[in-house]
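Hi,

Apologies if this is the wrong queue. I'm a grad student, and the batch job for Thiamine-phosphate synthase from Geobacillus icigianus produced an output file that my downstream script rejects. I'm not sure whether the problem is my script or the file. Here is the sequence I used:
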Amino acid sequence: MARIAREEMKKRLAVYFIMGSQNSERPAVDVLKEALDGGVTLFQFREKGAGALQGAEKEALARQLQRLCRAHGVPLIVNDDVELAIAIDADGVHVGQDDEDARRVREKIGDKILGVSAHNVEEARAAIEAGADYIGVGPIYPTRSKEDANEAQGPEILRSLREQGIAIPIVAIGGITVDNAQAVIEAGADGVSVISAIASASEPKAVAAALAAAVQAARSR
Ligand SMILES: Cc1ncc(COP(=O)(O)OP(=O)(O)O)c(N)n1
Ligand SMILES: Cc1nc(C(=O)O)sc1CCOP(=O)(O)O
Ligand SMILES: [Mg+2]
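Support response: The file is valid. Your script probably expects a header line. Output copied below for reference.
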């Protein structure tokens, strides 16, 4: 298997849904099934925070969600837990600045997809050097889904990274909804990453479809 090509990565980032069992009152499997039917293009398993599953239960849920993703041809990325990603043969891993060193993660996961969080141009350059396939930039807008989130930076951070020559695929994250998705793509992101917009929706399929349409509309401008 070879590293994912840049253009393929950009396409995959279009509607990047992140979820763990703690993000919805409904079973995660049901929410993900509907979201995939709506057009989610990439999924991150992020089992984290109060009430998060651990150990064998966490791995069992990851494998359940992975079966769904595979049935839809959508890659599954594991958040933080590199050993779990390797154990279940996930498609990739996402790590932040306080997680395992990205260069070390690249060594461990070979050609799997590597996503790294970056909040400024220095972190973006370091992520590229470490072998990231994409960077997650946020929070763009205020979020209630991450306890230790930084201050919201607005879409200007995306424009600024592009102006400073950062060409790696970028997914924007934090407070993104159907209403502001076009603005972040126009500012330079290749896709949008969301938790609550889909996980808390009464109709995840409809929201995923609306996000896909918004990204597509902004891309074709
Ligand atoms: C796509 C994407 N972007 C950013 C993050 C945040 O990662 P991190 O800063 O490590 O925070 P946690 O998600 O681990 O709490 C992400 N998970 N995904
Ligand atoms: C997981 C995560 N990382 C962020 C960052 O800024 O790095 S913001 C965030 C939570 C995104 O959830 P919502 O779509 O509900 O705002
Ligand atoms: Mg992390």
